[in-house]
Amino acid sequence: MKKLLMLVALSSLLGACAQEENEEVAATAVDAAVAAPVAALPPATPDGYYEYLYCKNGPNYSQDAFWAMVKDWNGVISSLEAQPTAAFGYVPRGWENENFDGLWVMRWADKTAMQAGWAAYAANDSQSKMDAMHPGVLTCGAVPSTDRFGWTAYVPRDIPDGFDPSNSPYYLTNELCAFNEGKSADDMRRVVRDQFLPAVDASMAANPDSTYWFRIERADFVSASGIQVDTNWVNFWQTAEEGEASAKTFETSEAGQSIRSAFNEVSSCQDIQAWDGWLLRAPAAAAE
Fold it and tell me: Which of 23, 61, 136, 183 has its CB 3.0 to 4.6 Å from that of 57, i.e. a possible disulfide?
Protein backbone atom coordinates (compact mmCIF):
# COMPACT_ATOMS: atom_id res chain seq x y z
CA MET A 1 0.00 0.00 0.00
CA LYS A 2 2.84 2.39 0.85
CA LYS A 3 4.42 1.68 -2.55
CA LEU A 4 1.11 2.38 -4.28
CA LEU A 5 0.68 5.72 -2.49
CA MET A 6 4.23 6.72 -3.40
CA LEU A 7 3.56 5.93 -7.04
CA VAL A 8 0.37 7.98 -7.04
CA ALA A 9 2.20 10.91 -5.49
CA LEU A 10 4.98 10.58 -8.07
CA SER A 11 2.43 10.58 -10.85
CA SER A 12 0.94 13.87 -9.59
CA LEU A 13 4.36 15.49 -9.33
CA LEU A 14 5.29 14.49 -12.86
CA GLY A 15 1.99 15.78 -14.13
CA ALA A 16 2.62 19.19 -12.57
CA CYS A 17 6.23 19.58 -13.68
CA ALA A 18 6.74 17.67 -16.92
CA GLN A 19 6.05 19.10 -20.32
CA GLU A 20 2.88 18.04 -22.07
CA GLU A 21 4.65 15.75 -24.50
CA ASN A 22 6.17 13.76 -21.56
CA GLU A 23 2.94 13.24 -19.63
CA GLU A 24 1.90 10.18 -21.62
CA VAL A 25 5.30 8.55 -21.05
CA ALA A 26 5.14 9.26 -17.29
CA ALA A 27 1.61 7.89 -17.00
CA THR A 28 2.62 4.76 -18.87
CA ALA A 29 5.56 4.23 -16.50
CA VAL A 30 3.32 4.63 -13.45
CA ASP A 31 0.71 2.25 -14.82
CA ALA A 32 3.37 -0.35 -15.48
CA ALA A 33 4.78 0.01 -11.99
CA VAL A 34 1.35 -0.32 -10.38
CA ALA A 35 0.53 -3.38 -12.47
CA ALA A 36 3.83 -5.10 -11.67
CA PRO A 37 3.49 -7.85 -9.05
CA VAL A 38 5.16 -7.44 -5.67
CA ALA A 39 8.47 -9.26 -5.67
CA ALA A 40 8.31 -12.57 -3.84
CA LEU A 41 10.30 -12.83 -0.64
CA PRO A 42 13.09 -15.41 -0.42
CA PRO A 43 12.13 -18.63 1.38
CA ALA A 44 12.17 -18.36 5.16
CA THR A 45 14.33 -20.80 7.11
CA PRO A 46 12.34 -22.82 9.68
CA ASP A 47 13.60 -22.93 13.25
CA GLY A 48 12.09 -26.35 13.86
CA TYR A 49 8.94 -28.42 13.77
CA TYR A 50 6.51 -28.35 16.72
CA GLU A 51 3.74 -30.72 17.68
CA TYR A 52 0.91 -29.94 20.09
CA LEU A 53 -0.75 -32.95 21.72
CA TYR A 54 -4.05 -32.60 23.56
CA CYS A 55 -3.72 -34.10 27.04
CA LYS A 56 -6.33 -35.04 29.64
CA ASN A 57 -5.61 -35.61 33.32
CA GLY A 58 -6.48 -39.12 34.51
CA PRO A 59 -7.97 -40.27 37.85
CA ASN A 60 -4.48 -40.75 39.30
CA TYR A 61 -3.20 -37.35 38.25
CA SER A 62 -1.35 -35.18 40.76
CA GLN A 63 1.65 -32.86 40.49
CA ASP A 64 3.92 -35.48 42.03
CA ALA A 65 2.57 -38.24 39.80
CA PHE A 66 2.95 -36.04 36.74
CA TRP A 67 6.59 -35.19 37.36
CA ALA A 68 7.42 -38.82 38.13
CA MET A 69 5.90 -39.71 34.77
CA VAL A 70 7.89 -36.96 33.02
CA LYS A 71 11.12 -38.34 34.50
CA ASP A 72 10.41 -41.83 33.20
CA TRP A 73 9.25 -40.48 29.83
CA ASN A 74 12.58 -38.71 29.45
CA GLY A 75 14.33 -41.98 30.21
CA VAL A 76 12.34 -43.77 27.52
CA ILE A 77 12.96 -41.01 24.98
CA SER A 78 16.70 -40.93 25.69
CA SER A 79 16.90 -44.63 24.82
CA LEU A 80 15.60 -43.98 21.29
CA GLU A 81 17.76 -43.09 18.30
CA ALA A 82 15.30 -40.45 17.06
CA GLN A 83 14.30 -37.92 19.72
CA PRO A 84 12.62 -34.53 20.02
CA THR A 85 15.08 -31.72 20.69
CA ALA A 86 12.94 -30.43 23.57
CA ALA A 87 9.50 -30.81 25.15
CA PHE A 88 7.22 -28.44 27.03
CA GLY A 89 3.90 -28.40 28.82
CA TYR A 90 1.39 -25.60 28.21
CA VAL A 91 -1.46 -25.21 30.71
CA PRO A 92 -4.36 -22.78 30.12
CA ARG A 93 -4.11 -19.74 32.37
CA GLY A 94 -7.53 -18.53 33.49
CA TRP A 95 -9.62 -20.45 30.96
CA GLU A 96 -10.67 -24.01 30.09
CA ASN A 97 -11.15 -26.14 27.00
CA GLU A 98 -13.30 -29.26 26.88
CA ASN A 99 -10.79 -30.98 24.59
CA PHE A 100 -7.79 -30.87 26.91
CA ASP A 101 -6.44 -29.97 30.33
CA GLY A 102 -3.07 -29.06 28.86
CA LEU A 103 -0.82 -29.45 25.84
CA TRP A 104 2.26 -31.64 25.52
CA VAL A 105 4.52 -29.76 23.11
CA MET A 106 7.41 -31.41 21.31
CA ARG A 107 10.05 -29.62 19.30
CA TRP A 108 11.75 -31.56 16.50
CA ALA A 109 14.59 -30.56 14.20
CA ASP A 110 12.21 -30.93 11.26
CA LYS A 111 9.26 -32.98 10.03
CA THR A 112 11.47 -35.86 8.94
CA ALA A 113 12.91 -36.10 12.44
CA MET A 114 9.38 -36.07 13.86
CA GLN A 115 8.32 -38.98 11.66
CA ALA A 116 11.43 -40.94 12.63
CA GLY A 117 10.82 -40.18 16.29
CA TRP A 118 7.26 -41.46 16.28
CA ALA A 119 8.33 -44.57 14.37
CA ALA A 120 11.02 -45.29 16.97
CA TYR A 121 8.55 -44.63 19.80
CA ALA A 122 6.09 -47.13 18.33
CA ALA A 123 8.75 -49.74 17.54
CA ASN A 124 9.89 -49.62 21.16
CA ASP A 125 6.30 -50.04 22.38
CA SER A 126 7.04 -46.93 24.45
CA GLN A 127 3.48 -45.87 25.16
CA SER A 128 2.51 -49.25 26.60
CA LYS A 129 5.55 -49.09 28.87
CA MET A 130 4.62 -45.60 30.05
CA ASP A 131 1.00 -46.63 30.68
CA ALA A 132 2.17 -49.61 32.73
CA MET A 133 4.52 -47.48 34.83
CA HIS A 134 2.06 -44.62 35.37
CA PRO A 135 -1.53 -45.80 34.89
CA GLY A 136 -4.29 -43.22 34.97
CA VAL A 137 -2.02 -40.18 35.21
CA LEU A 138 -2.24 -38.54 31.79
CA THR A 139 -3.61 -39.40 28.36
CA CYS A 140 -2.29 -37.50 25.34
CA GLY A 141 -3.40 -37.47 21.73
CA ALA A 142 -1.59 -39.26 18.93
CA VAL A 143 -3.95 -38.84 15.95
CA PRO A 144 -2.75 -36.18 13.47
CA SER A 145 -5.22 -33.34 12.80
CA THR A 146 -7.51 -34.59 15.59
CA ASP A 147 -5.65 -34.36 18.89
CA ARG A 148 -2.08 -33.97 17.61
CA PHE A 149 -1.14 -30.98 15.45
CA GLY A 150 2.08 -30.25 13.58
CA TRP A 151 3.49 -26.80 12.84
CA THR A 152 6.53 -25.53 10.97
CA ALA A 153 8.02 -22.88 13.25
CA TYR A 154 9.94 -19.67 12.59
CA VAL A 155 11.74 -17.47 15.13
CA PRO A 156 12.55 -14.18 13.35
CA ARG A 157 14.49 -12.70 16.26
CA ASP A 158 16.99 -14.18 18.72
CA ILE A 159 15.63 -15.31 22.08
CA PRO A 160 16.89 -12.89 24.76
CA ASP A 161 19.37 -14.18 27.31
CA GLY A 162 16.99 -13.22 30.12
CA PHE A 163 14.40 -15.81 29.06
CA ASP A 164 14.99 -19.16 30.77
CA PRO A 165 12.40 -21.92 30.17
CA SER A 166 13.85 -23.95 33.03
CA ASN A 167 12.62 -21.20 35.35
CA SER A 168 9.05 -22.46 35.07
CA PRO A 169 6.32 -21.54 34.87
CA TYR A 170 6.99 -18.93 32.24
CA TYR A 171 4.22 -17.05 30.45
CA LEU A 172 3.01 -17.22 26.88
CA THR A 173 0.05 -16.25 24.74
CA ASN A 174 -1.05 -17.59 21.38
CA GLU A 175 -3.30 -16.44 18.58
CA LEU A 176 -4.63 -18.74 15.84
CA CYS A 177 -5.22 -16.99 12.52
CA ALA A 178 -6.44 -17.63 8.97
CA PHE A 179 -5.30 -15.65 5.95
CA ASN A 180 -7.88 -13.30 4.48
CA GLU A 181 -8.91 -13.79 0.86
CA GLY A 182 -6.04 -12.95 -1.45
CA LYS A 183 -3.48 -12.80 1.36
CA SER A 184 -0.61 -15.17 2.08
CA ALA A 185 2.40 -15.86 4.27
CA ASP A 186 4.43 -13.35 2.24
CA ASP A 187 2.02 -10.58 3.24
CA MET A 188 2.45 -11.49 6.91
CA ARG A 189 6.22 -11.62 6.54
CA ARG A 190 6.26 -8.10 5.11
CA VAL A 191 4.33 -6.76 8.09
CA VAL A 192 6.70 -8.58 10.44
CA ARG A 193 9.80 -7.36 8.62
CA ASP A 194 8.76 -3.78 7.88
CA GLN A 195 6.71 -2.90 10.96
CA PHE A 196 6.76 -5.39 13.82
CA LEU A 197 10.48 -6.18 14.03
CA PRO A 198 11.52 -2.50 14.00
CA ALA A 199 9.02 -1.85 16.81
CA VAL A 200 10.40 -4.78 18.83
CA ASP A 201 13.97 -3.61 18.25
CA ALA A 202 13.08 -0.13 19.49
CA SER A 203 11.30 -1.55 22.53
CA MET A 204 14.22 -3.83 23.40
CA ALA A 205 16.66 -0.94 23.07
CA ALA A 206 14.56 1.06 25.53
CA ASN A 207 14.00 -1.97 27.81
CA PRO A 208 17.15 -4.13 27.61
CA ASP A 209 15.96 -6.36 30.47
CA SER A 210 12.87 -7.45 28.53
CA THR A 211 12.51 -11.21 28.12
CA TYR A 212 10.06 -10.97 25.21
CA TRP A 213 10.39 -13.11 22.09
CA PHE A 214 7.96 -14.62 19.62
CA ARG A 215 7.48 -17.62 17.36
CA ILE A 216 5.37 -17.84 14.22
CA GLU A 217 4.07 -21.27 13.22
CA ARG A 218 2.59 -22.39 9.91
CA ALA A 219 -0.03 -25.13 10.14
CA ASP A 220 0.97 -28.52 8.73
CA PHE A 221 -2.45 -30.12 9.09
CA VAL A 222 -6.03 -29.81 7.92
CA SER A 223 -8.36 -29.04 10.80
CA ALA A 224 -10.84 -31.84 11.40
CA SER A 225 -13.33 -29.23 12.65
CA GLY A 226 -13.41 -27.53 9.26
CA ILE A 227 -12.25 -24.23 10.74
CA GLN A 228 -9.46 -22.71 8.66
CA VAL A 229 -6.22 -22.24 10.58
CA ASP A 230 -3.08 -21.08 8.79
CA THR A 231 -0.80 -19.64 11.47
CA ASN A 232 -0.19 -19.65 15.19
CA TRP A 233 1.50 -16.58 16.69
CA VAL A 234 3.10 -17.31 20.07
CA ASN A 235 4.48 -14.63 22.42
CA PHE A 236 6.78 -15.48 25.34
CA TRP A 237 7.84 -13.70 28.53
CA GLN A 238 9.50 -14.96 31.69
CA THR A 239 6.61 -13.91 33.94
CA ALA A 240 2.90 -13.23 33.61
CA GLU A 241 3.36 -9.81 35.18
CA GLU A 242 5.83 -8.76 32.50
CA GLY A 243 3.78 -10.31 29.71
CA GLU A 244 0.47 -8.75 30.68
CA ALA A 245 2.02 -5.30 31.11
CA SER A 246 3.96 -5.59 27.84
CA ALA A 247 0.93 -6.73 25.85
CA LYS A 248 -1.23 -3.93 27.25
CA THR A 249 1.38 -1.30 26.43
CA PHE A 250 1.66 -2.58 22.86
CA GLU A 251 -2.06 -2.87 22.19
CA THR A 252 -2.83 0.63 23.53
CA SER A 253 0.09 2.43 21.85
CA GLU A 254 -0.29 4.24 18.54
CA ALA A 255 2.44 2.11 16.97
CA GLY A 256 0.89 -1.08 18.32
CA GLN A 257 -2.54 -0.21 16.98
CA SER A 258 -1.06 0.59 13.57
CA ILE A 259 0.75 -2.75 13.46
CA ARG A 260 -2.34 -4.60 14.64
CA SER A 261 -4.34 -2.95 11.85
CA ALA A 262 -1.74 -4.08 9.30
CA PHE A 263 -1.93 -7.64 10.62
CA ASN A 264 -5.74 -7.55 10.51
CA GLU A 265 -5.58 -6.74 6.79
CA VAL A 266 -3.67 -9.97 6.28
CA SER A 267 -5.39 -12.38 8.69
CA SER A 268 -8.51 -12.93 10.76
CA CYS A 269 -7.65 -14.28 14.20
CA GLN A 270 -9.28 -16.03 17.12
CA ASP A 271 -9.09 -14.61 20.64
CA ILE A 272 -5.67 -14.46 22.26
CA GLN A 273 -5.21 -17.20 24.88
CA ALA A 274 -2.83 -17.15 27.87
CA TRP A 275 -0.82 -20.14 29.12
CA ASP A 276 1.67 -21.16 31.78
CA GLY A 277 4.65 -22.91 30.23
CA TRP A 278 6.79 -25.67 31.73
CA LEU A 279 10.02 -27.21 30.48
CA LEU A 280 9.60 -31.00 30.31
CA ARG A 281 12.71 -31.98 28.36
CA ALA A 282 15.70 -29.66 28.10
CA PRO A 283 17.43 -29.30 24.72
CA ALA A 284 20.67 -30.64 26.24
CA ALA A 285 18.94 -33.93 27.09
CA ALA A 286 18.51 -34.72 23.41
CA ALA A 287 22.28 -34.58 22.90
CA GLU A 288 23.13 -37.00 25.72
Answer: 61
**Mean pLDDT, residues 30-37 taken together:** 43
Both 157 and 269 in one domain: the answer is yes
CATH number, residue 208: 3.30.70.100
One-letter identity of residue 74: N
Number of domains in the chain: 2
User: Exposed e or buried b for every residue in 144-161, given b needs 16+ CB within 10 A?
Assistant: eeebbbbbbbbbbeebbe
pLDDT class for 18, splitting at 50, 70, 90? very low
Statement: residue 99 has pLDDT above 60? yes
Chain centroid to CA 49: how far?
11
Selected residue with higher pLDDT from 188 and 286: 188
**pLDDT per position as a tens digit, 231-245:** 999 999 999 999 999
CA distance 179 to 219: 12
Query: Do 181 and 205 fall into the same domain?
Result: yes
Cis preceding-peptide flag for 169 (omega within 30 of 0): yes
> CA angle, 219 as apex, 213 and 221 as ends, to 5°?
150
Rounded-to-integer distance, Cα 263 and Cα 195, Å: 10
Residue 223 falls within a domain, yes or no? yes
- 81-95 in b/e form (b: 16+ CB < 10 A) is ebbbbbbbbbeebee
Is 125 domain-assigned? Answer: yes
Averaged pLDDT score across all residues of the chain: 88
Average pLDDT (69-88) is 98
Angle (nearest 5°) at CA 263 between 259 and 265 = 120
